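Here's what a typical entry looks like (DUF2255 family protein):
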Amino acid sequence: MTKWTDDELAGIAAAEELRIAPQRRDGTPRRPVTIWVVRQGDDLYVRSYRGPEGSWFRSARASGQGHIEAGGVDKDVNFVEETDLAINGAIDDAYRTKYRRYLDSYVPPMLAEGARATTLRLQPR
């Protein structure tokens, strides 16, 4: 299994946003969309603000693969669904910390049950 380098982790974690382009079922990339990304330990996580109905999330879940760009890193990835409730709590904390200036607006939906159900770990390919 490929792992993130320290430089990749640091670059992506420091980036305010990440561009994500999940693959369609036919293997072609979707148009990239801009989303938030957080780091927890040596892993990177994303969630769908719109919950399971988010179009990029549906594509990511269906194909399991895509491409990301953030913090000077341009990488193909696998999307791995995260179901560990303990990890999800730590990811909630990471969103609160990184995006604290949005605590009154955009962060609460990212911590809601719908968004938590879409937590994906980014695994480099």
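The mean pLDDT is 96.

More examples are in the samples folder.
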